[in-house]
Amino acid sequence: MPNSKFSEAFKHEVLLAYEKRECTIKAFCSKFQITKDSLREWLKQFEKYGSDGLQQSTTWKPYSKALKEAAVKDFLSGDYSAYEIVSKYDISSRTVLQGWVNAYNSYRGLKDTSKERTSSMTKGRKTTWDERIQIVLDCLGDRKDY
Fold first, then answer.
1. Which of 30, 71, 76, 120 makes the best surface tag, with the fewest CB within 10 Å?
2. How far apart are CA 27 and CA 51, in angstroms?
């Protein structure tokens, strides 16, 4: 499912107008109702991949645990900006990098990305209202917060 509200044609239109602009970047972005970050990303993708870089990604991109750890460590070192790290490691977006940083900082750890999404939750049985109340009372009684 596409994650961008902007079509490839719109992105092309913006980049063509950007070459001819006669105003500040702030005014330009305001005119097209885009962020400077979006403009920067589109320029980078177009420069690197041409028109193909403006298309919506329809595939899941796997990353190794080692790559994730290296990217996060570079980010946390403060020696590189998020943009530089995304470019250096060919990560699909800054949001992906930020998710890795959040996982790393919350001690959840980083894992290899698999093409198949798996759920950490298993399908349980249905519970009755009384069972749910008893579960909550047991949790509160044992000072558990789950």
1. 120
2. 25
pTM of the model as a whole: 0.54
Measured distance between the N- and C-terminal CA atoms of the chain, rounded to whole angstroms: 33
Q: Which two structure tokens, joined as six digits, stand for 42?
A: 């589109």
- H or E stretch including 133? helix 129-141
Alpha helices in 33-114 (DSSP H): 36-49, 65-77, 82-89, 94-105
Model pLDDT for residues 21-71, shown as the tens digit of each residue: 888 999 999 999 999 988 988 888 888 888 887 887 767 788 999 999 999
Burial of 75 (0-12, 13-18, 19+ CB in 10 A): buried
Rounded Cα gap, residues 66 and 134, in angstroms = 44
d(CA 109, CA 11): 36
